[in-house]
Amino acid sequence: MVETPQTPPALFDRALLHARQRRAQAQGEVTFLLDRVAEDMSDRLAAVLREFHAAADLWTPGEGLAGLRARLPALQLTALDPAGAETLPFGPESFDLVISALALQFVNDLPGVLAQVRRALKPDGLLLAAMIGGDSLTELRQAFAAAEAECEGGVSPRVAPFADLRDIGALLQRAGFALPVTDVDRVVVRYSNAFALMQDLRRMGAANVMIERRRTPSRRATMLRMAEIYAERFADADGRIRATFDIIWLSGWAPHASQQQPLKPGSAKASLAEAVKKAGKE
């Protein structure tokens, strides 16, 4: 009996994400995180000693990576599907570079999307992306959970679950990428209060888009208590609160014969035991 691959459960309403990103762009986006990622991505690409002639930008919101067009004049922009689909319009071996900034954290089937990117890359093609992950917004998550438990006797999904560094590295390997690398850039932003943070999230187009999100308006008492708890637990001496954003960077290459290869098991010419014995005699 052949097992059919299971479709992962959908966590995010990507059609709503599209609508909220469009609304944020119309109202004036908050782009400090995206600007930081764009600058860092430019530096990381500059360190790669090769030219890219066919590149795609996968779902980066707004004009986030517009500054890279001088270096990548043939950059193909791939916008979010208004209906929320995650099927990529890429043919096999179409690109030698795929980049993405602050978009992959809202993907329902991240393994599937990474596999599609891998198929779309030419041999020795590069994926370079940044996504929100790790302990991002842990302060807001904790404050909401405590306030709802205290005021309403239960907890509803308020902040999306984020993948951690090890998860992303494993997914790159699972998708067939060679030389996978991941690292984290932690950004701590300070606000006057929790409501100012939430306003910025809305203007990033990054407010709650979880399918299981609460559909009824939040109680005023719960929101006020959330802000109080946030200030009690996560404020600095001057009264301003902290908000953590972990930006996970991921990169991987489509396999190619020219790339470094790991040694085969048992191919080492000297054993660890021999090296230890030799070191003990010296």
Write the layout of secondary structure elements.
Elements lengths: L13 H14 L4 H15 L8 E4 L17 E3 L16 E7 L8 H11 E13 L4 H15 L12 H10 L3 E14 L2 H10 L16 H15 L6 E13 L18 H10 L1
Parallel strand pairs: 1-2, 1-3, 3-4
Antiparallel strand pairs: 4-6, 5-6
Helix pairs in contact: 4-7
Strand residue content: 15-25%
Secondary structure: number of strands: 6
User: What Rg do the Cα atoms give?
Assistant: 22 Å
Shape: elongated
Quick summary:
This protein is an alpha/beta fold. The protein has 8 helices and 6 strands; from the N terminus they run ααβββαβααβααβα. The chain is elongated and about 60 Å long.
Describe the structure.
With 282 residues, the chain is α/β, with parallel strands linked by helices. The chain has eight helices and six strands, in the order H-H-E-E-E-H-E-H-H-E-H-H-E-H. The chain has a six-stranded mixed sheet with strand order 2-1-3-4-6-5, sandwiched between helices. Helix 4 crosses helix 7 (220-234).
Features:
about 280 residues; alpha/beta; six-stranded mixed β-sheet; 6 strands; about 35% helix; elongated
